[in-house]
Automatic annotation (TrEMBL):
GO terms for molecular function: lysozyme activity. Signal peptide: none annotated. Belongs to the glycosyl hydrolase 25 family. Pfam families: Glyco_hydro_25. It comes from Streptomyces yokosukanensis. This is lysozyme. It catalyses: Hydrolysis of (1->4)-beta-linkages between N-acetylmuramic acid and N-acetyl-D-glucosamine residues in a peptidoglycan and between N-acetyl-D-glucosamine residues in chitodextrins. One of its GO terms (cellular component) is extracellular region.
Length: 278
């Protein structure tokens, strides 16, 4: 049966209209854009565990504290984003020791350092200070000097712990701060040597095993002299960096909460006192 010319023309118009409508819908649909990289934080805003959390993340179940052990002491680490810390409350919660960020690079000092550093001491805690390393900014010795000039010193009063070199993923750029593995080892050695020369104490090294492996080639040469503060947000500390058979401290969570990040000292009170006394 022959279709009428009018019917054929109508069907043709409908087909063309459908194609045009589909084309218009396609053209008007939003085009998927590539995800924007996260904003680079401002210099000075880094805190202990910031790079570790961004790189390694948090293991499943890590929001629950590992089982309490009688031969370990609970501690906290704090920085400027905690502001004024309620130390009496933390002392009442059996927090026995604390570290406060003092410096970063050679230009940043924590504006809350006095309240945090002195406040922990006044309630009875054994306390210390840490330096967030930025090896791309200046030499290790220059940063050790800056740290010592702004709260990173040590006194033999039984309540002041040796300073900490916080060396982890760069939150501002290249993970290894643009340094080769040997160049990073040299930078760390430069910092540690200057700190030891000026205080008589070996600084504590805070790091994560994966960063240490990637950026120093898993260098083993500091294990006999410098206490290790291992960062791993999981139920166990996992594999330690080369050169260390034991850890001194373990940061097991980094949340940025007002109460600070939580840590364990691998020993009882007299061992903590021994580390403070030297």
């Amino acid at each position: 049966m022959r279709r009428s010319p009018t019917l054929q023309r109508g069907r043709a118009r409908l087909a063309v209209t459908g194609v045009l409508t589909g084309l218009l819908i396609t053209l008007s649909s939003p085009v998927a854009q590539p995800a924007s990289p996260p904003p680079v934080p401002r210099r000075g805003s880094a805190y202990m565990g910031m790079g570790v959390l961004a790189h390694d993340g948090r293991a499943v179940g890590a929001d629950t504290a590992p089982p309490t052990r009688a031969n370990q002491l609970e501690g906290v680490d704090v920085a400027s984003h905690q502001g004024n810390v309620g130390w009496s409350t933390l002392w009442g919660d059996a927090i026995k020791w604390a570290y406060t960020k003092a410096t970063e690079g050679t230009s940043y000092t924590n504006p809350y350092f006095t309240q945090q550093y002195d406040g922990s001491y006044k309630v009875g805690m054994v306390r210390g200070a840490y330096h967030f390393a930025t090896p791309d900014a200046s030499s290790g010795s220059a940063q050790a000097d800056y740290f010592l000039a702004h709260g990173g010193g040590w006194t033999k009063d039984g309540k002041t712990l040796p300073g900490v070199l916080d060396i982890e993923w760069n939150p501002y750029g290249d993970s290894c701060y643009g340094k080769s593995k040997s160049g990073m080892v040299d930078w760390v050695r430069d910092f540690l040597n200057r700190y030891k020369d000026r205080t008589g104490r070996d600084a504590v090294i805070y790091t994560a095993t994966s960063w240490w492996t990637d950026c120093t080639g898993n260098y083993s040469g500091f294990g006999k002299t410098n206490p290790l503060w291992i960062a791993r947000f999981a139920a166990t500390v996992g594999t330690l960096p080369a050169g260390w058979s034991l850890y001194t401290m373990w940061q097991y969570t980094s949340s940025g909460k007002a109460v600070g990040d939580h840590d364990r000292f691998n020993g009882v009170q007299d061992r903590l006192q021994a580390l403070a006394t030297g």
